[in-house]
């Protein structure tokens, strides 16, 4: 009896960690908050920021840590906009979203970008494989080709890998028969160098697609006539990229937010100043900044640590509509809390706030609907 108890206890402690690992693995992938405009990629409960809504945490920073408390409930900690970690509880909803409740009675929802992870191979050792209706085990073992012949469902899920030195700001998937590129799939997100993200082209347009990415330096790189039913990872390294003037995008216009453009002054900048330009472009694509706020972010020791002169020349070399930045900043503030017209203008123009000019702050508050 004692031996049996020992065996059962040993089995219990061996199985539970594997089960917990399998539960947390269901969250692997990219997540984005439509409410708070930030995102991260989760892997084994650790989340790395892919976009940010605060100068207090940066893209590439670990901002969330979760462990499985039950099959659909997860606990841990996450960075808030003040840069500090707070305790959070997340619930995986039936529709695939993650519902969070955190300290300070904060509530928000994260939505998955791309397809959820596939079941791990270890699970197939203990459970029978699932087949589509009408599919036999023989056709399942025959691979993708056999499956496409016996089932109307096709799998175009793949992982986009950015192995270039530039962030990817826009990404397009288009059937080879289409004349335009359609909608930018990344939207407000940015795929930073060294990161990867899952995507799917759906199951109703066949397997053959053209892919295009647009980098932070405005260079364009394409992959033509790819069979997404057979490819699992597609790497863009920037080596086959061309300037937009040499290879323009198809006629369909992107619906993604506009990206800041550089002018000819960038060509005369020094190396550090060009690096500051790249950093400034990344910031402007993930949050709203005033001119002075962006210079401070680039030059502060809590930010990038560039020389103030280099940061100033980098920011002034960009074609940025600061009025529109003020509008975006005003809307971000209004999403967090209620402001009067006067209070929002003061927050936007304060040196302790967003650092816009009084005129820009007033324009932003008015266009955001606070006045």
How does this structure look, described?
With 371 residues, the chain is an alpha+beta fold. It folds into 3 domains: 2-113, Lipocalin (Beta Barrel), CATH 2.40.128; 154-236, Immunoglobulin-like; 261-367, no CATH class. The chain is 27% helix and 26% strand. It has 9 helices and 16 strands. The strands form 4 sheets. It has an 8-stranded antiparallel β-barrel. Strands 11-9-14 form a 3-stranded mixed sheet, with no helix packed on it. A hairpin with a 2-residue loop joins strand 2 and strand 3 (46-51). The chain starts with a helix and ends with a helix. The model is unreliable at 1-18, 119-152 and 245-266 (pLDDT under 50).
List the helices and strands and how they pair.
Layout: H1 2-25, E1 29-33, E2 38-43, E3 46-51, E4 62-70, E5 73-79, E6 85-92, E7 98-102, E8 106-113, H2 137-141, H3 144-150, E9 157-162, E10 168-175, E11 196-200, E12 208-215, E13 220-227, E14 233-236, E15 261-262, H4 271-284, H5 291-299, H6 308-316, E16 318-319, H7 322-336, H8 341-349, H9 358-367
Helix pairs in contact: 4-6, 5-6, 7-9, 8-9
């Amino acid at each position: 009896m004692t031996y049996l108890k020992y065996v059962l206890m040993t089995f219990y402690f061996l199985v539970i960690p594997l089960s917990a690992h399998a539960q947390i693995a269901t969250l692997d992938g990219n997540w984005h908050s439509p409410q708070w405009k930030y995102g991260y990629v989760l892997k084994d409960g650790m989340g790395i920021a892919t976009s940010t809504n605060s100068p207090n945490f940066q893209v590439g920073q670990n901002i969330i840590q979760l462990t499985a408390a039950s099959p659909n409930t997860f606990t841990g900690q996450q960075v808030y906009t003040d840069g500090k970690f707070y305790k959070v509880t997340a619930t995986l909803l039936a529709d695939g979203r993650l519902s969070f409740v955190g300290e300070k009675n904060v509530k928000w929802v994260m939505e998955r970008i791309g397809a959820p992870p596939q079941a791990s191979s270890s699970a197939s050792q203990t459970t029978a494989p699932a087949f589509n209706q009408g599919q036999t085990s023989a056709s399942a073992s025959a691979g993708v080709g056999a499956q496409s012949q016996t089932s109307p469902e096709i799998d175009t899920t793949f992982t986009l890998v950015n192995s270039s030195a530039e962030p990817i700001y826009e990404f397009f998937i288009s059937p080879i028969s289409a004349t335009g590129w359609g909608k930018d799939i990344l939207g407000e997100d940015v795929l930073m160098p060294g990161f990867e993200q899952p995507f799917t082209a759906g199951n109703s347009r066949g397997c053959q697609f053209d892919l295009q990415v647009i980098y932070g330096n405005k260079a364009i790189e394409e992959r033509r006539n790819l069979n997404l039913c057979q490819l699992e990872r597609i790497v863009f390294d920037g080596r086959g990229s061309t300037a937009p003037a040499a290879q323009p995008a198809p006629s369909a216009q992107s619906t993604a937010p506009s990206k800041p453009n550089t002018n000819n002054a960038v060509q005369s900048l020094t190396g550090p100043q060009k690096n500051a330009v790249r950093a400034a472009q990344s910031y402007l694509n993930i949050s709203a900044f005033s001119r002075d706020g962006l210079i401070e972010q680039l030059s502060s020791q809590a930010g990038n640590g560039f020389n103030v002169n280099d940061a100033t020349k980098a920011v002034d070399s960009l074609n940025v509509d600061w009025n529109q930045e003020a509008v975006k900043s005003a809307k971000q503030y209004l999403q967090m809390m209620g402001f009067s017209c006067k209070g929002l203008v003061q927050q936007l123009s304060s040196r302790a706030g967003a650092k816009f000019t009084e005129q820009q702050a007033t324009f932003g508050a008015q266009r955001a609907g606070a006045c």
